[in-house]
UniProtKB/TrEMBL annotation:
Family to which this protein belongs: Belongs to the metallo-dependent hydrolases superfamily. Adenosine and AMP deaminases family.
Residue span(s) of domain Adenosine deaminase: 11-326
The protein, known as: Adenosine deaminase
Gene Ontology MF, one: metal ion binding
EC class of the enzyme, as a word: hydrolase
Entry EC no(s): 3.5.4.4
Cofactor dependence: Zn(2+)
Amino acid sequence: EEELHHIVHLPKVELHTHFEGMAPPAFIRGLAKEKKVDISKIFRPDGSYDYRDFWHFLEVYEAATSVLKKPEDFARLCTAVLEKSAENDVVYQETFISPDFCGGGDVGAWKEYLHAIEDAATAAERDFGITLRGIVTCIRHNGPDQARAAARCAAETAGGFITGFGMGGDEKQGKQRDFAWAFDCAREAGLQLTTHAGEWNGPQEVRDAVEDLGVSRIGHGVNAYTDIALLEMLAEQDITLEVCPGSNVFLGVFPALKDHPIQKLRDRGVNVTISTDDPPFFHTTMRQEYAALAKTFGWGEEVFRELNATAIGAAFCDKATREAIT
Ligand code: HPA
Ligand code: ZN
């Protein structure tokens, strides 16, 4: 009991969150009211986000995000979400930010959104003691042309706050290699790379992510667990999985946490880390993730310290930032 309390309150490093996906429903409702847009259909009577499955989630996500219009709206979002993360003892966080939602891929507009977010993050670092870094993210179901525009935005703002480039969205659309130009563009700008793979598709998707895009991290990647040779390759190449156990269980990727392959992945020597993905959408928090993992797998404090050390090692920030959070 005492150990669980200690584990739950450990300082945490979180690598996989979607910026808009961290917005509490009350925050989105407040903005909708201010802007006089009716998105009441995306909420349940109890106020939580309402969706049936992952694909409906993506629609509800876009509807919620539609009330975030100006750079200032994203700045307010940044302050709100970092306060929540800090309440969960998160000391360092990386978040996916999409030019698709911030200016539609126009570099000039993107810079205005990004500066507003970055200023809010700097203030939150001072006020709440949490460091944020951004991963510019293309959206797979928006296609390769939009992804190229996102990559150009990323390249134009690489360095400092923006440390990486990634891809989210519907894994069932297209192939990883369709986005190779975007990832090459980001790599040439000095950005580190991650892509969602192996959440809805099988191990081949994870292989494609590594072989066709050259990423050093994978969003989820959990369906790699059935392919022993792939797990050996991930371990060998020091690839890190951004595992989001609560998200996976809530969306039905695995029936319950006890069925989640995270322990198997660790046993095979794969680098794994813990994140919440879109906490209010999946009714989770970093404290809840730690508590559930400790109970379900019987992990002690040393395991969580190891998971955090892995996350720090795989963080996309520079060495000085990395050292400041250790
Ligand atoms: N997965 C994939 N794409 C997303 C997500 C997610 O959890 N959230 C927002 N876009
Ligand atoms: Zn995700």
